[in-house]
């Protein structure tokens, strides 16, 4: 949602209880169910919503779907339609996670919840009808930060093995030193003052240096991470940190598809024409489908389908 004042004010005004599954808009051909999975040690269970194409067979790829909102806004209701459409378009089990938000729950609470959800998905492939060899993460904005951080954690922990990461206008760097972050101080949707406040709320009283898991752009080594699709918006203060992260992934030998959309604001909101919005959404879904079904992409490239 566009923030017109401070994030702290928006938190006070826009925190709402989640809808029940029965209150959510129905999406034809997609089933939705809620599960509470074990949370981090000493923390509450984590709510996830599981989206699955009704007519699909077994052993679909699975995607952990992480909503954005500057680490302190948004919820799984806000990504309901997107998660359902992704499940259908990409022939996948999509698991949207409801993680704890700042400022009440600063880093690493939200990341710990996402990690607990990822481990649950990886360990329940039979129940989900998922292929354990095709597990991915996807997130937009601050959700992209959490998704990228999960890839670092999974690499360091020796699993769960991830086959793909899908990052849309991701938040990646708390240092706020790029050219676009310096230039875009009053842009719609997102701007430097909001970014500064977002990082303050997310990091809270965290002592010492900011860890890579909080701000993935700080990671010195990006080798061994899963293939990536990363999109940025031309008029977004986050543009340059996203582009730089994508290039660093490529230099580290990680297959990357990187796309900057001209004339677009953060999260592709704003004045873009409806046909442009549809084009961007279509590309994002296509990238997810290619990342989860690389064998189909290779077959199509070879003229087999």
TrEMBL record:
Molecular function as annotated in GO: hydrolase activity
Q: Which UniProt keywords apply?
A: Hydrolase
Q: Name one Pfam family in it.
A: Abhydrolase_3
- Enumerate the spans annotated as Alpha/beta hydrolase fold-3 domain: 63-268
InterPro entries the record matches: AB_hydrolase_3, AB_hydrolase_fold, GDXG_lipolytic_enzyme
Q: Which PANTHER family match?
A: AB HYDROLASE SUPERFAMILY PROTEIN C4A8.06C (PTHR48081), ALPHA_BETA HYDROLASE FOLD-3 DOMAIN-CONTAINING PROTEIN-RELATED (PTHR48081:SF8)
Protein name as catalogued: Alpha/beta hydrolase
| Native organism | Streptomyces regalis
């Amino acid at each position: 949602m566009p923030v017109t004042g401070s994030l702290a004010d928006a938190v006070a005004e826009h925190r709402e209880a989640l809808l029940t599954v029965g209150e959510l808009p129905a999406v034809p051909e997609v089933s939705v169910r809620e599960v509470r999975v074990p949370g981090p040690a000493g923390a509450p269970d984590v709510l996830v919503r599981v989206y699955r194409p009704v007519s699909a067979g077994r052993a679909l790829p699975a995607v952990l779907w992480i909503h954005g909102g500057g680490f302190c806004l948004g919820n799984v209701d806000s990504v309901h339609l997107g998660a359902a459409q992704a499940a259908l378009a990409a022939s996948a089990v999509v698991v949207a996670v409801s993680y704890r938000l700042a400022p009440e729950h600063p880093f690493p609470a939200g990341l710990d919840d996402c990690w607990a959800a990822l481990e649950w998905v990886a360990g329940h492939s039979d129940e989900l009808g998922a292929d354990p060899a095709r597990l991915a993460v996807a997130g937009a904005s601050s959700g992209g930060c959490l998704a990228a951080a999960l890839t670092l954690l999974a690499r360091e922990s020796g699993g769960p093995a991830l086959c793909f990461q899908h990052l849309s206008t991701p938040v990646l760097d708390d240092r706020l030193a790029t050219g676009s972050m310096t230039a875009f101080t009053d842009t719609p949707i997102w701007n430097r003052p909001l970014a500064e406040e977002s990082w303050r709320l997310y990091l809270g009283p965290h002592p010492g240096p900011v860890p890579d898991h909080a701000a993935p752009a700080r990671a010195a080594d990006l080798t061994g991470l899963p293939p990536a699709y990363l999109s940025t918006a031309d008029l977004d203060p986050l543009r340059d940190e996203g582009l730089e992260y994508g290039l660093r992934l490529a230099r580290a030998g990680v297959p990357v598809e990187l796309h900057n959309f001209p004339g677009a604001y953060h999260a592709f909101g704003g004045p873009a024409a409806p046909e442009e919005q549809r084009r961007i959404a279509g590309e994002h879904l296509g990238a997810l489908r290619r990342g989860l079904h690389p064998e189909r992409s290779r077959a199509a490239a070879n003229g087999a389908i």
